[in-house]
Amino acid sequence: MSVTDTHSGRQAMSEASPRIRVPYANLKRLLTVYVAVLLFVLYLPLGVVALLSFSETGSISFPMGEPTVRWYGEVATNNTLLASLGRSLLIGSLSATIATLIALLLGLAFRHDTKLKPYALGLILLPLLLPGVVGGAVLFVFFGLLGVKNGLWTTVLPAHIVYVLPFAFLTLSPRLKGFNRTIEEAAVDLGARPAMVFTRVVWPIVKPAVFATSLFAFTLSFDEFIRTLFVTGFDRTVPVLFWVTVTEQGAPYLPAMAVIIMLISIAASAVAFLLDSKKK
Amino acid sequence: MPAPRTPKPFPGIRPFGNPLLLMAPGLVFLLCIGLAPVILTVVLSFWRSSIFGTTPDFQFGNYARILAEPVYWQLLVHTLRVALVTTLACLVIGYPLAWFLSTRPNRTKVIWLIAIFVPFWISYVVRTFAWLPILGVNGLINSTLIRIGVIDAPLDWLLYTSGTTYLGLVYVYILFMTLPIYLSLQRLDPLVISAAADLGARPSSILRRVILPLTLPGVLSGSLMVFLLSISAYVTPRLLGGPSGVMFGTIVADQFLTSNNWAFGAALATSLMLVIILVLSLMAMIPPVRRAMLSN
To answer: Are B237 and B65 in contact (CB under 8 A)?
Structure first.
């Protein structure tokens, strides 16, 4: 369900009947102040990091001296950082594509009535219900016992797909069931084969949802940290590299790096959000 | 003469594709990478780890150690308390926010929603890190207070205390509480509230007897999310908690990532899963909670 779905006619109703009594009207101003404070607290840390990314001293403290863009230059020329960024973008796109594809097939299967559905659903939701640390630990054990060497393709990619898949399924499945099936039935009635029903009828309808889902999946994978920490080799993804840098050595370019990570996440999520709200 | 048969409504044309074939890739993948690792971990929790590696001899030593050493109990109680307090704090702070969002006119609603969402689009590792320059010894708060002369020496209790862990957890997870409550407030018909008010209910009793019960499903799913996320917290206590930042999740991770004690780590991870299942089943026994769960 979309977050902007309003209760049907809520606005219209309150406009049509002007003398509805609204309790808590006297608390309105207080609530606005409260939300303003909350928003300030939500954005304050992000703003401070953005500010410090221009700090001359290169430490995460005040005062910060003359503003400089030096740290952005360091990030842009640091090969370790760039390599990890490339890896995160690659793993994000791949795991998002694969998970969305699997979720699409599962969603199409879930339009049928089969006895398997409750079991399948349990299996799909299992990775979602496992707490992050446990999710990482079980994968560590699994790959460790099988003797799979930690690496980007051997362990990190499967870990990301299994993490992203339940979210992709939960986003996509309602869209596959939600649309008006009469058009599809008309196509079948007119003699369209299943392949044609999919390519000519279903796919055009669900395409925006599929793209929105894969972008959403990308952002989840791009930000995934705890499971990756358990199965990472030496080829680290961005969040893992950021964590290692924060906890082990620290670096003057950390705020600049944080700002770049923030911008990528926000951009990808914003596009997904727009895609998702457009199709209505 | 037989009664005229009423025609059955047309059930619709079957969706295309063979459901089994469509499910196959997903189910095979999830059985291998989703379910198998969990089973393997539970099995491994009965094995023995030593400096020579992990060997498969079935025994209860790992669990006996968890039960016998009080430090694990204390840690479990501490972790449950942190998760519970975080959940309650998110509920108290997030509910008015959800109410605010749901009462915005449609024109501005999207803007408000985006304003709340944007920080949560960012990795929680980065967002947790972002508190360091605010709370640190030379951080924003201390340097500001010193400059305006409120204090002479930096406050050292701002960072690396259990309070900082709570702050970080609430900051990182509050949207998971706000969003489901917002969604259930959206489904709440405002006329129900007006009706209660017209019939003379005081605002406090409208809240207690109309709004809260009707939004209980949202409260529950939000609480469940925040509880699950904070009971296995790793990043926030590590980064902000300092010496008090040891939680159950961090010692589970340590067994694998530093001490190389897989079998014991597996036993700790299994215990955490059991505790979560236990807490959820206990919650499901409370009648209103059970009703809300069933209706969901």
So the answer is: no
In this structure, the answer to whether residues A200 and A146 fall within a common structural domain is yes
* Owning domain of residue A48: 22-52
| CA–CA min distance B2, chain A (Å) | 33
The interface predicted TM-score of the complex, written ipTM, equals: 0.86
pLDDT, tens digit (0-9, with 9 covering 90-100), for A148-164: 999 999 999 999 999 99
Residue for token digits 């909350």?
Answer: A38
Q: Who contacts A75 (Cβ-Cβ below 8 Å, separation ≥6)?
A: A81, A253, A256, A257, A260
Cβ-Cβ contacts under 8 Å, A112 against chain B:
14-15, 17, 19
The set of residues, in sequence order, having a beta carbon less than 8 Å from that of A150 and lying 6+ positions away, is A143, A156, A231, A232, A233
Q: Is B33 on the interface with A (CB under 8 A)?
A: yes
Of the pLDDT bands very low, low, confident and very high (cuts 50, 70, 90), residue B85 is very high
- Together in a domain, A186 and A254: yes
Most B CBs within 10 A among A10, A13, A162, hence the mutation to make, goes to A10
CATH superfamily, domain B68-246, is: MetI-like (1.10.3720.10)
Q: Are residues A37 and A162 in the same domain?
A: no
What's the total number of domains in chain A?
2
SS3 B233: coil
Instruction: Please name the residue of chain A whose CA is at the shortest distance from the CA of residue B144.
Output: A62
Domain CATH number, residue A248: 1.10.3720.10
A positions 90-109 inside 8 Å of B (CB): 102-103, 105-106, 108-109
Asked if the structure places residue A17 within a domain, the reply is no
B280 touching chain A per CB within 8 A: no
Per-residue pLDDT at A280 exceeds 60: no
